[in-house]
Amino acid sequence: MGALLKRDILIAIRSGGGALTGVLFFLVVVILFPFAIGPDTGTLARLGPAILWIGALLASLLGLDRLFAQDREDGSLDLIVMQAHPMALTIFVKAAAHWLVTGLPLVLAAPLFGIMLNMEPIAIAATVTTLAIGTPAIAFIGTVGAAVSVKLPRGGLLISVLVLPLVIPVLIFGVAATIGALEEPAPFTAPFLLLCAVTLFTAVLGPLAAGYMLRHSAD
Amino acid sequence: MATQTKPSTEGFWSFANPSKFMGFANRTIPALAITTLIALAAGMFMVLNAPEDYQQGSSVLIMFVHVPAAWLSMMIYTVMACSAVGTIVWRHPLADVSLRAAAPLGAVFTFLALVTGSLWGKPMWGTWWEWDARMTSVLILLIIYLGLIALSRAFEEPAEGAQPLAIMTLTGFIIVPVIKFSVNWWNTLHQPASVMRFDRPAMDAAFLYPLLVMAIGYSLLFFTLHFMSMRNEILGRRIRTMKIANAQEGR
Predict the structure, then answer these.
(1) How many CB atoms are located within 10 Å of the residue A186 CB?
(2) For residues A64 and A152, what is the distance between their CA atoms, to the nearest angstrom?
């Protein structure tokens, strides 16, 4: 499992900066917002958490279609399916590697973009915390989408359409917790705990469903 | 089922055979269609005789087309989820056929619920659309339906798409209640429009009975269309198989 984690991370890093592309995409999305809603700093600061969340959400979807398709093309997916380890565990590790390469850089870049959006330090802290907890859930849900469309030649767009409605709860609880940390009447703990719950829930069910899918679609 | 004399499960399971189902569908569809027409006609009659609401006036009539459509949008997804279980657990080709046939119908009923809701919202709430938790979650349901339809058409070989489609349908079903229960959290994000609450009112019998009859009519309509659509799907697959066989012979 450790070897698989290392392999996936190395492939992602050496095959042309997937992480950087994701962060770049994130930056472009964030930059689009001041153009769209005007450079008023007050508005931007207020919308900041939502902007960062949407940017991170879209950026997280980028590499999903390659998650299993690449392994399928070079044949290593068959080996992964045939090995003795539980399939769900393998996919959990693959999703973790995917998140470390694409999700974590987004979380690390978020504070910088938060400053650009004129957000307060506490808002930035809350957004980064919720992103750190919420983005793995996107990777875990994404494994299902990636497994379902692994055989499709043009699955990338379809994955986004299928996965985006499913990650809406992550977005809701993530932004709700961030708002809760900022504004007094809104609670922070409850949405935050629900966000944690969603991540744990998807960490179990996503790899299970994806594993089932891959085992039954192996050629 | 009525003609089946053996009460054993074997009798029921025999309908999982597509040919048996075709016979069953051919026999039931006319009866179902007629019952649907009767139920809908009776429902419409009762609706038109229903009293006007003291607040909403005659626009309360929209409720009788709107609420059943909204119920159906949820029920059809449940039918699809059951079919998905059938595909995953028993691998019945018919379960996959049922799922595929139900998806467009579900999308249509969801769309109908949204459109009638919007038409009802304009005179009642003064707005076509509000990002209310209920409306938004139904919109997400519509998107899930459309995504599943896209997925079901993406596979060249229908049999290859059965398992992915079933998995995706079940995944969507897990999330639908989560979306439903997110009402409170959504409201913390969006300052709630308090008019928009669609709490189930303690409804007067004068409204409730027409509504229930309409709901029965809608459900029958769905089952009629579902059976017809399943029959089309099976026929389509047979045509496909024949074409492939012909092509191979010609080679």
Answers:
(1) 18
(2) 13
Distance between CA atoms of A73 and A75, rounded to whole angstroms? 6
Cα–Cα–Cα angle for B27, B29, B34, nearest 5°? 115
Best-predicted range by mean pLDDT (A66-80, B58-72, B218-232): B218-232
Beta partners for residue B57, in sequence order: B53
- Count of residues making up chain B: 251
Give the tokens for residue A99: 């998140």
Return d(Cα A147, Cα A217) in angstroms, integer.
Answer: 9
Which residues contact residue B250 at a Cβ distance below 8 angstroms, ignoring those fewer than 6 apart? none
| Cβ-Cβ contacts under 8 Å, B171 against chain A | 141, 144, 166, 205, 209
> How many separate helices (H) and strands (E) can be counted in chain A?
10, 0
Nearest to B171 among A144, A151, A155 (CB): A144
Bridge-partner residues for B53, per DSSP?
A: B57
Q: Say whether pLDDT at B207 is over 80.
A: no
Average pLDDT, 10 consecutive residues per value, chain A (219 residues): 75 68 87 84 83 89 79 77 80 87 88 85 88 91 86 77 85 86 78 88 88 75
For residue A63, is it left (φ>0), alpha (ψ between -120 and 50) or beta?
alpha
Q: Closest partner residue to B182 among A172, A187, A209, by Cβ?
A: A172
Q: Which chain B residues are within 8 Å of A154, Cβ to Cβ?
A: 154
Using alpha carbons, list the distances in angstroms from residue B87 to A97, B16, B103, B162.
31, 11, 15, 7
Q: For an interface test with A, which of B89, B170, B171 has the most A Cβ atoms less than 10 Å from its Cβ? A: B171
- How many CB atoms within 10 Å of residue B74? 16
Q: What percent of chain B has pLDDT over 70?
A: 77
For residue B28, give the H/E element and its range. helix B18-49
Mutation target for B interface from A166, A199, A201: give the one with most B CBs within 10 A: A166
Structure tokens at B104: 């467009």
Q: Where are the domains of chain B?
A: 62-191+206-246
Here the tokens at position B15 are 């309908």
Q: How far apart are CA A123 and CA A181, in angstroms?
A: 7
